[in-house]
């Protein structure tokens, strides 16, 4: 199942990354539209604002060695490397993304400080305690084993370092929330199919998991309202000639993902899809 899933993820991003960069630029993630989601701003600025808001929320003011888990074409990696004058390493399952990220690093004069490779986030090719910032921007939803993913992030994190994750979740379960309805399960299943996801979990589940793994100073937040406008902006951006031509040339996987953008927009509207944040640290070695 894992090898098939990884092939689907690779194909999705191999096929779509070039078009995304052409229309949207280097950042392959949500944008931030203010806490109440009402701020009007340039779409690329909204994506940069999300990075800055995440850093502020997590209290990260400096970093020396960064790993970007699920790096796309290097948007966050290069931004963080420049911001903190740090070294950054990005990993992705997509050879197309890794190669493009290397090209972008060279163009920015950052080849000596930013590197990219094809690697499995559940088995990272790094030594224990390698990075003082582990950054995961919208990659957790792709992980077939969420616990193993968090364990790997913990393993490569230096004592005293910070882990920041932003990921797609479904709504909380149990108690007043109840369980997922059949209709909600069908909605999620369509999102999984289109965006090559094995499953998503709720933010409280991530928080409990992180605690069991020995992360410390765990904090979570739900920024669904702040980022939800993103999907409507993406939908609007597809209604231009370049985007339509690009879609037609990019293959069925990308076309299918574009035709299904409304799944995510409606998911936010009904409260089913949530944008979850988790930051945590690793205790000092005794």
Automatic annotation (TrEMBL):
Query: Is Lyase found in the keyword set?
Result: no
Keyword annotations for this protein, in alphabetical order, are: Methyltransferase, S-adenosyl-L-methionine, Transferase
Classification via PROSITE patterns: SAM_GTMT
Which ranges carry the Methyltransferase type domain?
67-165
Top-rank taxon, per record:
Bacteria
User: Which GO biological process entries does UniProt record here?
Assistant: methylation
| Pfam families in alphabetical order | Methyltransf_11
Extract the ranges annotated as region (SAM motif III).
Answer: 156-165
By its UniProt entry, which Gene3D superfamilies does this protein fall under? Vaccinia Virus protein VP39
- Region of interest: SAM motif I: 66-75
Leader peptide range in chain numbering: none
**Which InterPro entries does the entry mention?**
Erg6_SMT_methyltransf, Methyltransf_11, PiNMT-like, SAM-dependent_MTases_sf
One GO molecular function term of this record is:
methyltransferase activity
- In this chain, the stretch annotated as SAM motif II covers 129-137
Membership in a protein family: Belongs to the class I-like SAM-binding methyltransferase superfamily. gTMT family.
Q: What is this protein called?
A: Methyltransferase domain-containing protein
- Source organism of the structure: Funiculus sociatus GB2-A5
């Amino acid at each position: 199942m894992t090898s098939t899933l990884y092939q689907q993820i690779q194909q999705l991003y191999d096929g779509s990354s070039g078009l995304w960069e052409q229309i949207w630029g280097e950042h392959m993630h949500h944008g931030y539209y203010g806490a109440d989601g009402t701020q009007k701003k340039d779409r690329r600025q909204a994506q940069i604002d999300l990075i800055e808001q995440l850093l502020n929320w997590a209290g990260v003011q400096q970093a020396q060695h960064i790993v970007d888990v699920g790096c796309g074409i290097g948007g966050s990696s290069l931004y963080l490397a420049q911001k903190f004058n740090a070294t950054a390493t990005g990993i992705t399952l997509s050879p197309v993304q890794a190669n493009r990220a290397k090209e972008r690093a060279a163009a920015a004069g950052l080849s000596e400080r930013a590197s990219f490779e094809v690697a499995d986030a559940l088995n990272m090719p790094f030594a224990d305690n390698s990075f003082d910032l582990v950054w995961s921007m919208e990659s957790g939803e792709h992980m077939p084993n969420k616990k193993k993913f968090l364990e790997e992030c913990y393993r490569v994190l230096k004592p005293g370092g910070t882990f920041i994750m932003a990921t797609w979740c479904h709504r909380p379960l149990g108690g007043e929330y109840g369980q997922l309805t059949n209709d909600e399960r069908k909605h999620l299943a369509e999102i999984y199919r289109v965006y090559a996801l094995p499953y998503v979990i709720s933010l409280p589940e991530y928080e409990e998991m992180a605690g069991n793994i020995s992360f410390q100073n765990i904090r979570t937040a739900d920024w669904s309202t702040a980022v939800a406008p993103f999907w409507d902006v993406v939908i609007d951006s597809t209604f231009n000639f370049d985007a339509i031509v690009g879609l037609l040339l990019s293959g069925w996987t990308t076309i299918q993902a574009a035709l299904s953008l409304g799944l995510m927009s409606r998911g936010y509207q009904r409260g089913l899809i949530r944008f979850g944040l988790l930051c945590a640290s690793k205790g000092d070695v005794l």
